């Protein structure tokens, strides 16, 4: 009835006029919103001196910050996790005219369980469309397709407010206004835009034009940047000298000091060091599918990706060690055993399983071991960690205690307790007849040939642990022909392990001198 009435009362021309008017109103609304955003950006550009930056085309940023994160504890009685803090000193040189960047960082472990490899460096450069990673530990460089204009500084730029204002200025047509909010009692204009599939929201103080907060949403990963203590240099640039970065309502980084300057660069910082050698592109081993490797007769390494389990045939059963896995893994310990049964054609059970240390990522498979009916062999110091992982106490018949140097299974298996920076007690397993050593978190390589640099994460402290392990093996006077790790499908020969040990970084002062060697140029 209502539709019939409207159809009769309103002429076609009138309907057309209404539709046109409505569209005009909508268009004027969007134009107005863009105009608001444009005015806010214009005010911010003036407040920060971005116009001076745009004309000179060069910028140097130096900053100090602390990074906070959860790590693994070194002491079993402390539980599986502990607090880790790193101190960064980092520097970014940008030449907008050359379209070149040089990013340098020294990373010093302050709180956490590490050996003497407490400092590493990062050096990433981009020029003429090509990225380069420089390793000052091994004095090599490597071209990298993963280093581009946006990624070279490992997200450092996102925490620099003046660069966000420059980004807004360069992309003003893509920015929309989202009203006003109050932060710390001050009115702020809210601006929304998207760049490289990352959604961003800026909160700009209406009175000062300064950026107080930035939110980024990258595929559901939300980061908060709060900018504090603004200062200004002689060239008229203004920036926040402190920044708080948080994720999931937890502070992850605190930039405590930042300084900006405009400089004249001849491009030396963007070149590879003159005396460094090119490093061949890394070729990684692919264990995407579950695999079984019979190292020697009766000794099997079974795993996938980043997690492997060793099974040793001791006659009527297997002894197993290494159950590393993550919560979303599907090829778990029981599936590895099933894969072994399929490979050998027999159904021998596992009679004993050896726990190496207290970290929860190495205990997730223990519940499947208990369900299978195998006895848990462990140090007394690890019993609480195992029971915490299981969620219930171990019955006396479910476990047996280990001790340093103990031999069992008719002397087919021997264990050593090797304390290191990673864990205050870490069991390594030695098979005397086969001269095989199994360890977790002490050595390894994911490469087909060669090794990861000591100047990288997560490998940096592994070299210290390997040195500690080697000293213990020498003291025990055992001969090893095969070195097996729960994190790597690649098995080291004795010669490879010795080459692994010879890799090392210089002292911290020498490493820093290499990092900043080109600064005088």
TrEMBL record:
Coiled coil: none annotated. InterPro entries: Metallo-B-lactamas (IPR001279), RibonucZ/Hydroxyglut_hydro (IPR036866). SMART domains: Lactamase_B (SM00849). Transmembrane segments: none annotated. This is Metallo-beta-lactamase domain-containing protein. Residues 296-487 form the Metallo-beta-lactamase domain. The lineage of its organism: Bacteria, Pseudomonadati, Pseudomonadota, Gammaproteobacteria, Alteromonadales. It comes from Pseudoalteromonas luteoviolacea.
């Amino acid at each position: 009835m209502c539709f019939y009435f409207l159809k009769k009362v309103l002429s076609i021309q009138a309907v057309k006029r209404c539709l046109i008017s409505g569209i005009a109103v909508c268009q004027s609304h969007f134009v107005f919103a863009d105009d608001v955003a444009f005015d806010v950006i214009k005010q911010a550009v003036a407040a920060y001196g971005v116009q001076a930056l745009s004309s000179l085309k060069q910028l140097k940023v130096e900053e100090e910050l602390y990074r906070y994160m959860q790590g693994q504890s070194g002491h079993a009685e402390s539980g599986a996790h502990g607090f880790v803090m790193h101190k960064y000193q980092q520097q970014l040189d940008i030449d907008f005219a050359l379209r070149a960047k040089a990013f340098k960082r020294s990373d010093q472990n302050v709180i956490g369980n590490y050996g003497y490899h407490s400092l590493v460096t990062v050096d990433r450069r981009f020029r003429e469309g090509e990225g380069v990673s420089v390793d000052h530990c091994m004095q090599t460089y490597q071209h990298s397709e993963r280093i581009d204009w946006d990624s070279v500084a490992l997200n450092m730029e996102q925490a620099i407010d003046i660069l966000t204002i420059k980004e807004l200025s360069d992309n003003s047509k893509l920015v929309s206004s989202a009203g006003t909010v109050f932060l710390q009692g001050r009115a702020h204009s809210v601006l929304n835009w998207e760049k490289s599939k990352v959604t961003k929201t800026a909160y700009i103080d209406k009175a000062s034009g300064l950026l107080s907060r930035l939110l980024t949403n990258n595929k559901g990963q939300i980061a908060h940047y709060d900018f504090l203590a603004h200062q200004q240099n002689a060239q008229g640039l203004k920036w926040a000298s402190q920044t708080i970065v948080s994720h999931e309502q937890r502070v992850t980084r605190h930039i405590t000091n930042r300084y900006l300057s405009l400089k004249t660069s001849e491009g030396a910082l963007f070149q590879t060091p003159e005396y460094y050698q090119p490093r061949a592109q890394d070729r990684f081993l692919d264990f995407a599918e579950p695999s079984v490797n019979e190292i020697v007769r009766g000794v099997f390494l079974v795993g996938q990706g980043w997690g492997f389990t060793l099974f040793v045939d001791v006659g009527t059963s297997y002894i197993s060690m290494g159950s590393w896995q993550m919560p979303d893994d599907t090829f778990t310990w029981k599936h590895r055993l099933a894969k072994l049964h399929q490979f050998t054609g027999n159904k021998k059970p596992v009679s004993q399983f050896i726990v190496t240390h207290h970290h929860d990522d190495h205990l997730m498979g223990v519940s499947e071991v208990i369900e299978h009916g195998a006895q848990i062999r462990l140090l007394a110091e690890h019993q609480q960690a195992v029971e915490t992982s299981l969620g219930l106490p171990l019955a006396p018949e479910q476990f047996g205690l280990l001790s340093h140097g103990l031999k069992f299974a008719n002397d087919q298996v021997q264990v050593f307790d090797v304390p290191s920076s990673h864990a205050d007690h870490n069991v390594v397993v030695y098979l005397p007849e086969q001269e095989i050593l199994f360890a977790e978190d002490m050595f390894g390589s994911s490469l087909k040939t060669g090794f990861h640099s000591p100047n990288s994460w997560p490998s940096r402290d592994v070299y210290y642990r390997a040195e500690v392990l080697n000293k213990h093996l020498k003291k025990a006077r055992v001969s090893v022909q095969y070195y097996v790790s729960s994190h790597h499908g690649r098995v080291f020969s004795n010669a490879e392990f010795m080459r692994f040990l010879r890799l090392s970084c210089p002292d911290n002062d020498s490493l820093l001198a290499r990092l900043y060697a080109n600064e005088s140029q």
